Every structure is written in structure tokens, then in C-alpha cells.
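Issue 218. Parser rejects a valid record. Input:
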Amino acid sequence: MASDVTSRDGMNYAPVAAVTKKVVAPGEFNFAATHFDHGHIFGQIGGLADAGGTLKYIYEPDPAKLGNIPKSYPDAKIVSRYEDILEDDSIQLVTSAAIPSERCNVGLQALDAGKDYFTDKSPFTTLEQLDLARAKVKETGRRYMVYFGERLSNESSWYAGKLIEQGVIGDVLQVLIMAPHNLNAPSRPDWFFEKNKYGGILTDIGSHQFEQFLNYTGATSGKVNFARVENFGNPDTPELEDFGEASLTLNTGASCYCRLDWFNPGGLRGWGDGRSFVLGTKGTIEIRKYLDVARETSGNRIFLVDGESEKEIECQGKIGYPFFGELILDVLNRTEKAMTQEHAFLAAELSMQAQAVADAARTA
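Output the parser choked on:
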């Protein structure tokens, strides 16, 4: 199930890469897909399959949530028990998009069964779950990876990271991210409005932005300076946080700020005008992730200014999603090239720490 970049259905947004590099032959990497509670699972499946992975099993008690997956992957077997997947030694990785509060338990079971785990963000809703996952990773030697799709399935966001790695804008001093999302409340499941299940807006969609902070700065730790969450416009669902913001200082010295909200304007042709701004000592980068407002041009664009010129870099259909192939090779070779385990955990940890700060301020 693919969702076009101009779709207003953000929950089922599953972009398809025009540029695909297969890293394994059929049958060399077997994975299973489970718990289709969030539409990001379609992007997770598609990314792994496009990189050469073989979808062997599907587990989801509600057939209505499967979309076109059974037709797109007719050789995948639909099973009635999660245990059927865990008991098959040929499965190397389980990818899942359970209700956020349940993602940790699903993952711990996968790790105990000797499989690596690749969950939708946010990977946890509490710091206690993170502690359990860290201990289980250490105990089993397996991976608990996270689908931070706003970078991993966005060509401009991915390529911007590579430009920064190359030193194009020098040392990163500040990262600003704006992440409006389309609410479309009638289409959302009940758990979406229950805070103990989705974890709060900074824990949930905020985790995307915290992961980008770490990637673009190369930071390995940080502190939360300020965080705020509110329900400004949805009194009928009081546990929904429709606005969030946070400020961090990372151990590189970089300043980071993000704003998240569910106030995507009705006139916008897409589910959100996500943008990032990166200031370096030698230049700046603006990333227009999904669209270009009031212009016929697509999103996936980078506006780079360095010491020599101004450049607009079109990434649409040119970069692909290299993360998935790198992840498959990491699983097979026991390397950490796609994403380190600590990077994935730290992004989640900082987002939950920010959520805790915001929750405390709101109840004070």
C-alpha cells in the first residue's frame, strides 16, 4: 500500500522509492510483519522488500488492517498466532507497528526468540520500557531498531545528512524542525486519543525530530532545556496533545528546536509541510521534505548555501531509501552501519525526557 506525497492521509503514508538497490537475493533474508495498528507498517514492509528481503509471514488479527499486502505479497503466509513467527528459526527480523504502548512487549518477545526487531516509532511510551529493552539487547545480542520514517523514508532528509557528514556546511550549530501533521480525527483509531497508549506528542511524532537532531549533529548525548505540550483545539478529545515544542542542547554544543502540531491547514495538498533548517559554520541547509508550498515542484528538495553559491538540489527519485538495505546487511553481518543501537535508543530517550518535562510543566 503506497501513499502519494500529496495525500492528506499521513497515518498511511508509505512512500515508494524510485531508486532501489537490492542487497540480497530472494530467500537470503526472511522477515515477518506483525501488528498493523499504524499505517507506517506498509513503508516498513516495502522498504525491506524493495531491498531484497522476503516477506515470509504476516500476523494481524484484523484482516481489514492488512490493506493490499496479501495481494502484493501472495507468497507470504498469514498466520493466526504471533508465536508461529517466533518459533520459525528462518525468520531473521520481525517488523511491526503495534499500538505504541505495546511495541516494547512485542519487541522483547522477538528478541527472546532470537530475531532482530524493527518497530515503527515511537519504540516506547515510558522510560521503564526503554530500560527493559536495553537490558534485553544486552542479554540476547539482538537489535531493537526503529523506523524513524521522516528521515529514513525521505530522500531529501537522508541526503542532507550525507552532505552534513561530508562537511559541506561545516560544524552544525543549530537544527530547527517544523513538523505539522494532518489530524483527520474521524479516521484515527481510539488508541490515538489515549495518552497512556500513544505516549504524548513529543514521545510520538517528536521522536522523529529528536532522531534527526542526533543524526545531523553527530551528538551522543544531550539535555532538554524546555518542553511544552498543549491541547489547543480539540476539547472533545482531552488526552490528545495537538501542539508540542522542545529545545535541547546536545553534547556537540548544537542548539536544537522542534515544533510539532496537528494543525495542518485544510488548503495544503499534503498531510504536512515538514521542513528542517540546519545552520553550520560554513553554510546552511533547508530541507523541504514533502512538498513546496504554492509551487508545482515536488518536495524532497534541499536548498544549500555555502561559501561559494546558492543551490537547489532536487532529490525526488534520485536517492532512494538506502537505510533498508543497510539494515538487512547489518542483521546478516552483525554490523551497525545503518543505525547504531544507542542512536535509536537515545532518540527515544530524549523524546520521552522532553515529554516528562512538558507533562510536569502542564500539571504544575
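Fixed in the parser; the record now loads. DSSP finds eleven helices and 14 strands in the chain.
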